[in-house]
Amino acid sequence: MSEKVAVIGMGQMGSGMAGRLRESGLDVTGFDVSVEQRARLTKDGFQMTSSIAEALAGRTLVLTSLPDPKAVNEAWLGADGIVAHAAPGTLCIELSTIDPQTMRQVGAAAAARGIAVVDCPVSGSPNEARAGRLVLIVGGEQTDVARAEPVLKLLGADWKYTGPVGTAKVVKIVNNMMSMGNVLVAAEAFALGVAAGVEPDKLYDVLSVSGGRSHHFTKRFPNALKGDFAPGFKMELGEKDLALGIELGRVTHMPTPSASTTRELYALALAEGFRGQDIVALLAMYQNWAKPA
After folding, report:
1. Whether the model pTM is above 0.85
2. What is the mean pLDDT of the segment spanning 229-254?
3. Which of 60, 86, 120, 202 would you call most buried, defined as having the most Cβ atoms within 10 angstroms of its Cβ?
4. Is 105 helix (H, G, I), strand (E, B) or coil?
5. What DSSP element (H or E) covers 138?
């Protein structure tokens, strides 16, 4: 694969994917709005630029990994953005978890300038991004997806095609609604089991092979038992994704009472000081509540 790549949004996930592509032999430039992050990554050997326009110069493939719809709109549609500065014929792969309407808007604006767009949110951690073990959810024109396939194979061994641009974002939102709910219920149940007198390690040994287990329970709770809440997926991102699900329900006229309750508890965790920690820190919140007054 010989295309030159720009990665816009070099946070945990973006830098993980950029590192994977760089280590696979690709020529990668990166941009992030954070001056501090750009400086850190430059020290780590990344080729960083001071603007999106500079990052796009001479690049035929662009990846965007951004935190929310506002950041996506600015990166794509701003005066210094992708639609204004990417050359016609450029292939852009949008990897963020955002609402489908924003994805369709930026996709349409890009297509009007002859820029190909693949809608490709990802499931996995920054470590899995660096190792090329992400699960990719892919939407877009089949010809564009086929063109993206070489880089998709570097980022993940498996991907699922969902349909036109925007559909992959829908799938990612509902997946994250499920994931955030799974972690919340597991944290509540686990804290209750410990409060009722079962040793944490013994409780985990049983629950990890029982019917109530989930992917996130077996992936995250071993770290929580060691008091390690380093972020693989930050609490505030979980709250943001739940809000996206609730808004999707609103625009499709479908009630989302479970997601709404779950989102309130994530917001409570943020208010109680767990911002920046992994979503499994919900367990610590429940454990705090279990302590006698």
Report:
1. yes
2. 96
3. 120
4. helix
5. strand 135-139
Residue 1 has pLDDT above 70, yes or no: no
Distance of alpha carbon 33 from alpha carbon 50, whole angstroms: 8
In this structure, are residues 243 and 263 in contact, taking their beta carbons and an 8 Å threshold?
yes
Token reading at 276: 């920046």
Active-site residue, selected from the candidate residues 70, 160, 169, 172: 172
CA 200 to chain centre: 30
Alpha helix stretches (DSSP H) within the chain: 12-23, 35-43, 52-56, 69-77, 82-85, 100-112, 126-131, 142-155, 167-195, 200-207, 215-225, 235-251, 257-269, 282-290
Distance between CA atoms of residues 253 and 206, nearest Å: 40
**Percent of the chain surpassing pLDDT 70:** 99
Q: Please choose, from the candidates 70, 96, 87, the residue with its C-alpha nearest in 3D space to the C-alpha of residue 9.
A: 96
Q: How far apart are CA 248 and CA 122, in angstroms?
A: 19
Q: Are 155 and 132 in contact (CB under 8 A)?
A: yes
CA atoms within a 13 Å half-sphere pointing along the CA-CB vector of 291: 6
Clarify whether 234 is annotated catalytic: no
Interhelix angle 282-290/215-225, nearest 10 degrees: 60
